Amino acid sequence: MKLSPYFLFSLFLLGACQNNQELLKPQVKPLIEAVYASGFVVSKDEYEVYSQAEGYLSEKLVADGEDVKQGDPLFIIESDQQSSRYRLAKENYDMALSNYRHDSPVLEELRAAIQTARTKMQFDSLNYVRYSNLLKSNATTRSEFDRIKLSYDNSRNEYALQKSRFEKTKNQLYIELQNAKSQLQIASNESGRYTIRSQVNGKVFKTMKEKGELVRRNETVAVIGKDSAFFLELSVDELDVQRI
60: burial class by Cβ within 10 Å (0-12, 13-18, 19+)? Predict the structure, then answer.
């Protein structure tokens, strides 16, 4: 009997498969259950840089991937509203400084009032001494002497009042000057060109704003951290936490 070549080839393949067949044996292993969670990769000491002012980003001083040190400037923001507050604070300070100067119109006016009161007091003092001598020699009446004495007492009180008013006004002008100086310092720190600086040594992983874009107060503008170590922050459902 003559066999087909195709039949003989099939028998050859079948025999080869049976000789090389791999045997599988069961193995005992711990049962692994998967828990799915969403998360992020964060770096060591990573923090988000927030803007403390609102305005337009005039200068972007860093790029993604750059190394920065603590205190390095990152962004510069310009704000018209803050610039207006600074100008107003500067004007108030200049006015307060002008009023407190030695030759300021306010103090010069009070000095003139003191001088007038002093001159009148000196004149009334001379009259008081003269009428005192006249009264001792019975050359004038008691009522006339009392009138002169009363005029001298009033002028003396007026002189003391003018000196007290000068000191009070000078102290008040000094307080106004210090308050204006403090307001100017605050406005200067929050001036129209606000600089955002890095608070740590690290690497700029991401910047969220480009030059010319609007930046709002408390808006994230960059992410900075250290590239020496990275961690996974995962949000796991409370029902799945016990499985971890």
Answer: middle
Token pair in block for residue 109: 């006016």
Tokens of 203: 């690497």
Tell me the C-alpha distance between 147 and 227, whole Å: 93
94 and 50 in a single domain? The answer is no
Q: What Rg, from alpha-carbon coordinates, does the chain have?
A: 46
189: number of CA atoms within 13 Å, CB side?
6
Render pLDDT for 187-229 as a digit per residue (tens, 0 to 9).
Answer: 877 665 578 889 888 899 899 999 889 888 889 999 998 888 7
Q: Which of 191, 212, 233 is the last residue of a domain?
A: 191
Q: Are residues 110 and 136 in the same domain?
A: yes
How many Cβ atoms are within 10 Å of 164's Cβ, its own excluded?
11
Q: What's this model's pTM, rounded to 2 decimal places?
A: 0.53
